[in-house]
Amino acid sequence: MKLRSSAGTLYKLGLRQGPVEQLKTAYLMLDGVCQFNCNYCTHALTVAKLPFLSRVLWPEIEDFPAFLEKLSQSDFERVCIQVVSYREFEKDLLELVEKLKILKKAISVSVRTTDLKFVRQLFSLGIDRIGIAIDVVNRELFRKYRGGSLDRLKRFIEKLATLYPCGVTTHLMVGLGETDRELFETMVWLRDINVETALFAFTPLRGTPLENHPRPPIERYRKIQLARFLIYRGLEEYVEFEGDSIKAFKELPGGFEKAFLTSGCPSCTRPYYNENPLGPLYNVHSEEMLNSLEVKG
């Protein structure tokens, strides 16, 4: 088992020197040779292997008992395990969850699977949320960039949402050629089946097939964030379209700025996952930072 931790998690635990962010979630990664080949991922099968996932550096944990002890004494509210789909990762993941549950902290697992029996095992061990990424909301682009059937994956997510109400999260990526309307309709569907949406801005990463694909304009990403904020409050009728693009909003409720915070599982902060610390910040990872920064881009 090769277990890594995000650099920010290690900084906060005092196990590595670096800037301490206001993290509520500790991030771990089970690493190995991925069997999939997503065109936007640094861990894709045909991409040079680097200790990164998206923009985040993930040093290997050298002393797990010491790490676990520090984690148990910390004020982290949640542990999130990112899982690379290497051969037989299931065994390692179940073993890791078993070790982490003694912390009495909420546990999220982000994993690529359609194995219902395996998911049942994870929940039986005590995880409270599972993340099954959609990433690409357009059917043809899903097949092209990620591989497989979007409709089949959505049926699996819907099944999980029935079995584990409010226990499922998915990831949607903005900027891969999809329309605003496709993102909007997908988020409405996810809201209706009680699945949480975590938004990401596409980030071109060196060495991947999409390294020269442009980032989404920050203005467009802000509109999608606001649409998500409204949808999950039952206010999707406030979103105005021109063709398949979001044009404007009829009105915005008080506190709408929170739409720009990192979205996902409860307590998710995920700092600088898809942006440079120098900005612009696509996902703002703390309310203090939201209050102190100009986030509109």
Automatic annotation (TrEMBL):
Looking up Pfam families in the UniProt record yields: Radical_SAM (PF04055)
Location of the Radical SAM core domain? 20-242
Establish whether keyword Zinc is in the entry. no
| Domain of life, per lineage | Bacteria
InterPro entries registered for this protein in UniProt: Aldolase_TIM, Elp3/MiaA/NifB-like_rSAM, HydE/PylB-like, rSAM, rSAM_sf
UniProt keyword terms in alphabetical order = Iron, Iron-sulfur, Metal-binding, S-adenosyl-L-methionine
By its UniProt entry, which PANTHER family does this protein fall under? Answer: 3-METHYLORNITHINE SYNTHASE, BIOTIN SYNTHASE
The name this protein carries in UniProt is: Radical SAM protein
What species is given as this protein's source? Pseudothermotoga hypogea DSM 11164 = NBRC 106472
Q: What is the lineage of its organism?
A: Bacteria, Thermotogati, Thermotogota, Thermotogae, Thermotogales
